[in-house]
Every structure is written in C-alpha cells, then in structure tokens.
Design brief:
The protein has about 290 residues and is an alpha/beta fold. About 40% of the residues lie in helices and about 20% in strands. It is elongated. The relative contact order is 0.14.
C-alpha cells in the first residue's frame, strides 16, 4: 500500500494513539474529537487490510502488526520533521546536544564558544565531556567531537586538526632545558591511552632508552598542558591545538621536532539522517573557526 493511498494525518493520529494507547488522550493532544480520531484509525486499518488495535471495553492494545507498524511510522514522521526543519527553517533554533572530547572542549572550544553564542543566541548548547571513544554517549547527542584513529563506521567523519605532536613547556622550563642538560633534567609528561607519546618521540629524535628519562602520566592532553604551564615538565601536544587555542600564550616549543600521531580530533555526524538546523549551523561555524 503506497503513501498516496493514505493521508499523512492518519499516520500522525495512529502514532499519537499508539503512544498513549488511548483515543481520548490522542484526541486531546491533536485537538480533535474522539470520534474523529476513531474514524481516522478505522480508515487507516481499512487501507492496510489489518487491525492495528485490539479494542477492549475500557482499554486498547496494539496488535502485533500495529506494534511493528508504529515503529515504522515514528521513524518516518521523525525524518519528515527533521527534513522540514533542515530545509525550511531560515534561522536555526532549539537545543543542540554535543558529545565533546574533554581536551578539545577545554583547550579549543571553550575560548571561542562565546563567538558562537553571540552569533546564535537562539540556540541552547548542551555539551557532554568524554576522554575516550569508549565512553558511553548520552542519549540525544546529535554531533560528536571525538579523539581517536578516525575509523568509525556509521558516521560521516571530518578531521578537525592535524595529528602532529611536538614538545611544549613553559618559558621557565625552556630556560632549564638550555642550561641544565636538556631533556634528561626535566620530567616528561605522557598521556595515558594515546597511541603515541614520548617513547615514539625519543626513538625518532634521540634514539635513547626511554627508561633513562623521568616520566609521569596523566589521563588527558588538557591535564598535560596544565601541568606544563605550571613548570612540571615537558609534554607532547598537537601543534594545531596549541596554535589555535589560548595555549600559545602560555607554552612554547623548545624543540621543533615532531612526530605524527595515529590519533586526532574528529567531528562525527550521523550518516543518512538529516541534521537539525542547529547542528548544521554549528558545523558551519566550526569550519569557519578552523580556517
């Protein structure tokens, strides 16, 4: 049975009745009479050739076919609504939920998010922090900014920053590096859970045994950067993250020797699903900020 043989308002009515399991509650929600709701359900059942509800004296229940069809109708109505918002809303409004890597949120996003708010005051942002891709996402997060290898099925993936890493430290530590024996005299700050760190950097640029150096470990690049700012040691950071954030005013690179990391920061968008107007606006703003 094609959609041309039934009316869209029948499907909306069926979704409301199926959700409430009540003709009267659906009628109140849709601002219709109960008899009109009942009539539309009967017309839809006639077109489909099967009953959708089991009618009892004081209640109704979905049939097996009704439960299966309700899931299909809900998904279809959602796509119609999202597509309408995406195409016809001239100004994005509403709530946008984001799942964002903590380091990216603190070091890159936080210093410039006021610009987004000034441009789009009608959009309310809800940001949920995470460290690693294995962290469970909150329900409803439409976009993600994730740290990892970039191999995630079922997402449209856009790399946000380069993956190069090089040493960074405070001005005070940089002076000690020059006067007190180089890296051997300074603690090296490594980030747990990342695919590349000081072991890789030393094997490329120093050919030294990593055990010769003092090291300590933290669980995010944001913490590593904070420790370096406080003269605790030297850390490896993404060059683009430093140069495009407030860190460039607090940290310097004492050694212009880099390694490529197997992980980076990526924007993840849903595939084969229309994005809300708010999500489209955020993606456009993000791209403009990265130029």
């Amino acid at each position: 049975m094609s959609l041309s043989n039934m009316q869209l308002n029948w499907l909306r009515t069926f979704e409301a009745v199926g959700r409430h399991l009540s003709f009267s509650a659906a009628a109140a929600e849709l601002s219709m009479s109960q008899s009109a709701v009942s009539q539309q359900i009967k017309l839809l059942e006639h077109k489909l050739g099967k009953p959708l509800f089991l009618r009892q004296t004081r209640s109704i229940q979905l049939t097996v076919s009704g439960r299966a069809y309700l899931a299909v109708v809900r998904e279809g109505l959602w796509h119609i609504e999202q597509g309408k918002n995406s195409i016809f809303n001239s100004v994005a409004e509403g709530i946008l939920e984001l799942r964002v890597n903590n380091s990216f949120a603190q070091l890159w996003l936080a210093p410039r998010i006021d610009r987004f708010i000034d441009l789009y005051p009608q959009i309310s942002l809800r940001m949920y922090g995470m460290n690693w891709e294995a962290d469970e996402p909150p329900s409803g997060a439409e976009l993600e900014i994730r740290y990892g290898g970039g191999n995630w099925p079922h997402y449209d993936i856009q790399q946000l920053l380069s993956t190069e890493l090089k040493p960074y430290c405070s001005l005070g530590v940089a002076s000690r590096l020059r006067s007190a024996g180089g890296l051997l005299s300074i603690p090296l700050i490594d980030v747990l859970g990342t695919p590349n760190g000081w072991s890789d950097w030393l094997s490329v640029h120093r050919h030294d045994d990593v055990d010769s150096y003092r090291r300590f470990f933290v669980d995010s690049y944001a913490v590593a950067a904070s420790m370096a700012i406080e003269d605790a040691g030297v850390c490896l950071l993404n060059e683009a993250l430093v140069e495009k954030s407030r860190l460039h005013e607090q940290l310097i690179s004492p050694l212009d020797q880099r390694i490529d990391s197997l992980a980076g920061f990526y924007l993840l968008k849903p595939v084969n699903q229309p994005m809300s107007g708010a999500a489209q606006v955020f993606c456009h703003w993000l791209e403009s900020e990265l130029k």
